[in-house]
Input
Amino acid sequence: MKYLNKSITEIHELLKNKTITPVDLVEEAFENIEKNKELNAYITLNKEEALKEAKELEGKEVDNLLFGLPIAVKDNIITKGLRTTCGSHILENFVPIYNATVVEKIKAKHMIIIGKTNMDEFAMGSSSRTSYFGAPRNPWNKDKICGGSSGGSAATIAARDVLFAIGSDTGGSIRQPASYTGIVGMKPTYGRISRYGLVAFASSLDQMGPMTKNVYENAVLLNALVGKDEKDLTSARREEEDFTRFIGKDIKGMKIAVPNFLMGDIVSKEVKEKIKDTIQLLEKSGATVDYVDIKYLENAMTLYQIIAMGEASSNLARFDGIRYGFQAENIKNIEEMYLETRGQGFGEEVKRRIMVGSYLLSGENAKVYYNKALSIRDDMRKEFKKVFEKYDLIIGPTTVTTAYDLTDPMDDPRKSFMDDVLVIPVNMAGLPGMNIPVGFDNKHMPIGMQIIGNSFEEAKIYQLGSFIEKSLNLELTPGGEK
Amino acid sequence: MANYIPTIGVEVHVELKTKTKIFSNSKNGYGQMANSLTNVVDLGYPGTLPTLNEEVVNLAIRAATILNCKIRHEMFFDRKNYFYPDNPKNYQITQARTPIGYDGYVEIEINGEKKKVEIEEMHIEEDTCKSAHRGTKTFLDFNRAGVPLIEIVTKPCMTSSQEAKAYLEKLKELLFYGDISDCKMEEGSMRADANVSIRKSEKDPFGTKAEIKNIGSISNVGLSIEKEIERQAALYDKGETFQPQTRRFDDKLQDTVLMRVKETGNDYRYFPEPDIPFVIITEEMIEEAKKGIPMLPDERRKIYVEKGVLEINANKLIQNRPLSDFFNTLLNENINFKTASNLLLGDISAYLNKEEKEIGETTLNKERFIELVNLVDSDTLTSKNLKDILTMVMEQEKTIQDIMKDNGIENITDDGEIRKVIQEIIASNPESVEDYKNGHDRAIKFLMGQVMKETKGKANPRLAMELLTEELNN
Output
């Protein structure tokens, strides 16, 4: 009997009436993962501990929807006693001594961490191919990438190994792989979820978020992750809300904007067609959809590169082999220790970004690049604000194409940034954004649409997302069995 | 040696006296077992984030107020990026662009002349960890990592080592009395760097600068500045020049030695710390911080002197914070403050030093001290007798009068009894009486001595003197 392809409410009922136990779910999850081993979705499995935790739950009251459910956690999220590598050689043997705030939160709900998912090294990449542990594969076609950097989390959800995964999104790293694998991935408003325990890539952009097979489950998980954290000064204090509260509601009268930039020439015809179909559906359902110009969107990629690489060059400075992580052997002095440890410990993409970032912050460059980028970012935020004065939500494609081949060349960094060109503005503006599958291309690879909301309006995104999900009623399980 | 005008600026790092560290909740302490006061934030573990200790902001506002600085109302932190093993994140969180205080001054006095030493800026930052080298190994103690610091930078506005020393003495006094830092240079809670250059005339541009780092005491700051001026002058006299450089003071050599020639363009890749949002400093926060400022030395000095304390004693009291604080509790009392200060700095200090105690650790509370001052002031208790009972005064809880009684120290205050003795002495010393009447002052002292002798020292000296004068003039 299989349970993990059922809905959360069904599983919850089964747990409550004791038809199944958390141990059944954990065992099934590991069977699934074993069966899908070639997806390479995980860097570390937490089998022993997960089973132990599941057993410990057996006598306990099933007190919430997430009780006893297995969850996969991206490997840049700190888990006490469970190896956390960030997909890097430099942390290959790093076993943390504390828990990220989100980990504490999911544990408080009695969720069970099943393993740590594969990712681009330090979340730097868009196809998960910069992982020291090899790239994960797309469940829809194992020769294709599953996107990145949260590629492992996307793969394991698309393959229906488990119901829940957590990803992180600095420049599209939840939404883009969600789009390539046909799942729902939400990057909440910056500050919604405490970043304490997320290994920093670009501090002013990083945000974790839920990755799930459907909208409702996504909102349920988000409910558990959010909240002001005294340990993260950038986390926001908000009144408690239920993110599922608008799910199932009508969208009549909803005002939706489509930025012309998101429907420009960079987007492939097939993707554009699917988005247009969806727009028609929305219009038919009583929403108004307008094409709008939003200033600075075309600059978002440049701003992103400056800000993210600048911050990354500083954030990754702490990996020096002194207090934790890999240390090079046969070193003669401090200088050599730094050079060899970091030279051998980091992969090419990470080193490239550290170098570019260091250059961008050097001497007068900080003023010319970083500070200027921050100020244009502010302008861009204001532009988005203006749009939200008139519109409820913004929509557009999540990616310019569908997932491409794992063997496609990686030597052009500009090309890899094109994978994220449509999702990055959301990070720059600190807004919430979500991918929702809207169809397939002619090779049956998923096409995704992103829904962008005003700050802290995730609930509205879920409202539209669930409407689309229900209306399209797509078969989103690879291989077909729903 | 030709005549040169020195230009001196001083940078001081002071550790703030907070309960916890600046960006984590680890305890801020000195002299504990290595790495016992540290957590994942201090160690720069992946995923950790800084929080901001409000006590640090409060103390920094207080310091800015005391140093007459303008206070910034909106500030942020910056990252200073450099690799060094004592720097756990390989960046230090500091304030490069928005120092909390700027444009301040400290008033010093040199040979009776007042001068304002201008403060360029003061900012908040975190301390690094402490490294110790043993043989080929280096040991790191992260207890100090994340201890809050303020760095106070003067303008290059001093022209002598005396000024620099006077500035540091004054700064130390202010920050110590402001309860901002314990300012112990020997423990590193106050550290000073001096920038020194010389030039022939005030019209000339500033000379090449040498920075003397981490000098261990105020007197050595003075010495190292003098040595540096001599060294630079000798070079210029020979027609030589030198590179801007960093030096240190060598205790054994009693001289400065070269550490490194400054490389141009030291690149710290500063950028605004994204993990700490803007800090808004409100008027309420400033008022709150000001309220916490205890009475500062200059005000104490002024009040003490107004109350009749000798200036030299006022300064001595201020050098001893516990005594000064004790003295301050008396300021609203109607007592002889001169007597009070003499007692505190004399017999009481001698006792405290010998016993290695602070005044708060004795039984001498405010009430008993007031009694003591009045007894001494009225000559009811002579200084000789006080010495005999001092230990009891400091260690017992009885009233001073009870202690006197226990020890047979009586005080004849009966007019009639004393007058009788005086009359007898006048009768039996006609020569001295004659001398007194002829204006010889010595005579009355002799007669007084006789009175005390006759009463075995128990006559109240003031009363006896009054009566003696009266009888002699009869």
